[in-house]
Structures are given as structure tokens and as C-alpha cells.
Amino acid sequence: MTQTRLVEVRQNVLKQNDLLARRLRDQFVAAGVQVISLVSSPGAGKTMLLEKALTKLHEECRVAALVGDLATENDAARLARSHAPVKQIVTGTVCHLDAEMIERALADWDLNDLDVLFIENVGNLVCPSSYDLGEATRLVLMSVTEGEDKPLKYPTIFNTADVALITKIDLAGAVEFDLEAARQNIQSVRPGIKILEVSAKTGAGVAALLDLLRPQTVLAATTSNEPTLMGIEGF
Amino acid sequence: MHELSIATSMIEMGCEEAARHQDSRVVALHLKLGPLSGVVKDALLFSYEIASSGTSLEGSRLVIEEVPVTVYCAICDTEQVVDSIQRMCCPECGALTPTIVHGRELEVTALELESIELQSEPVIETDVFASELTQ
Q1: pLDDT tens for residues A68-94?
Q2: Rounded to whole angstroms, how far apart are CA atoms A38 and A61?
Q3: Are B51 and B112 part of one and the same domain?
Q4: C-alpha dist (Å) from residue B50 to A128, B30, B102
Q5: Nearest neighbour of B108 by CB, restricted to A2, A11, A94
Q6: In A, which residues are within 8 Å of B119 by CB distance?
Q7: How many domains does chain B fold into?
Q8: Global pTM?
Q9: Is the ipTM reported for this complex over the cut 0.90?
């Protein structure tokens, strides 16, 4: 038998994405833009909540959004009703956004014209967890109709998030949602994470969320949560 | 399912390193994989075969070392392997532990090479050369 030998490589497979995400993060910080991403399963209410947030924040600061979907520009059309600048990223068959897509989408925007930038990821609780987008804060959403054990089924994505939102809270009674169990499950996979209950429909909890996302508070909120986005940790 | 693009990146890294060892054939690519990387082992093994096809890594094995999730427990002042990623707590004292030390790894650690100089046949050399040309 021929003898084999090992040659050390030691390279992070997502090195390219992480380097680009780090560069984007540096640019966001230099331009003073708070970048907040949203991840959830399809239908958890990212777009409706974002529409509310954009409409409200547009009155007080310069806010914009990038929104990712496999197909259609429907979400961008919905979000445009807020009058904030919105750009759709159509990924085709790709199930997540990556740092390169963000860089490309931002190419003709001047970051100095922005205070807050939202990035709505493709509805998917698996793949987006691997990709750092350069955001300062990652929000993970779960709706009450999805069940209390969602965090236990998708621990990885919850583990990369800085804030967890329980959405459609107005429906909690109708679906007999066990809020305490949900909170425990979120804390179990991501100890210490801040949890907010919101309803984009009734507006419940939206003010508290916006307080957290306003430019001056985002940094404080994330540092207290020890953000573990891969780019920050050096992966 | 993003494992195919992950596998493609791994193959690119492997091919880059393999090009520095023209006298050898790649037998295996070694990878460290943590459960918090968001990458599924079986899907990656499946994708590896597809992604390596037609490259200098075609026919090589993917050897995955699974890295357990290790957290730092501030109360015990030690690093501990958690029992389950559904419960990020110290197995000793039970305290919830947000500080993750290991478990997010997705790292190509090494290439396993076999020398081709002794039993090499011209056909193999030609194949390797041709596959490089088509990249």
C-alpha cells in the first residue's frame, strides 16, 4: 500500500464571506449606520413588522431596507408603502443572503445618507445561520402559530441571534400558545437573549422594539447580549 | 440546502492546495464541523461527491471530524461540553452558559495526499492535467 501524508490547510470554509462581512461591518460603523437583519421561517411576519418599523422610523431618521426572496418583488412593493428606500434582492434558487449580495445591493446607495438599514433575509431557519452579513444586530422571529418548540428544532439560528421576537402575539390565545414555555425554550438555546413579544397587526410591543432599534440604543443592546455573529468571533 | 455551495468552496480550497503538490494525488480532505455551523453532515457528504467531480479532488474522500459544542461556565470557571445544543447549560452546575468556545467550526484542516511518482501511469498524469485545464 502507498503511504499517505497529511498537509495542513486550516482554513474556514466561509472565509470569503466572513472577510467581506467584516469589511461591510467596518463600513457601516464608519458611516454611522445601524444595520439590523431579520431571520425567520417563511410566514412568521418579517415583512409586516418591517413595514410598521420602516413607516414609524422613516418619520424620525433616514431608514432603508434590503429584502431577500427566492422570487418576486412583492415584498419590496409592500415595504415601499412606507416611503423609505427599499431594494429587493431576488436570490433565484439560493436559500439565504450572503455578504456579497449585500455588497452588490448597496453599490449604488451612499451609506452616509442612512441612519438605519434593515436586511430581511430569505424565510429560512437553517441556511441563513451560516452567513454573516455584517449586521450589528440579528433579530430572529417566531410566530405563535409555529409552536413553542421552534427554538429547540432550530437551535443554530436562534444561537446566532441577538434579539428574539415572538410575533403575532394577538393570536396567542386563539392557538393556546404557551408563552412561558416558548421563553424557556429560547433561553435554553440562547441564554441571556432579549425576548420581545410583538404584534404588527395591533401594534403591541412595536414601540418597545423600536426603542431597542433606534440608532443610539442598538449598540448598547447588542453589547449587553454578547453578540456571537461569526464575524465578530473570528470564525 | 446550502451544502452544495459550501462543498464547492471546500473543493476550491482543496484544489488550491493540491496544485502545490503536483507529485501527489488527493486521497481525502479533512474537515472540522461543529453542530452550530448550520451545516448538515450527510448533506455535505452527498454534495462533496458532486462538487469534486471533474476537479483534482475527484474520487477523494471527505473525512469529517465532528466537534462537540463547548461552552465556558463562569461559575465553574471551566470549559464544558454541553449534553445537547437544545440546552446550552453547564453539565456540572446546570447554569445557562451563553459563551460558546467551540461548535461553530466549518474548517478545512488538511489534505491527505498519496505520492503518484512510483505507480503513476501517463494516463493519470494526463487526466490531472486535463481537469486542471478545464477549470
Answers
A1: 998 988 999 999 999 999 999 999 888
A2: 19
A3: yes
A4: 22, 17, 29
A5: A11
A6: 2
A7: 2
A8: 0.85
A9: no
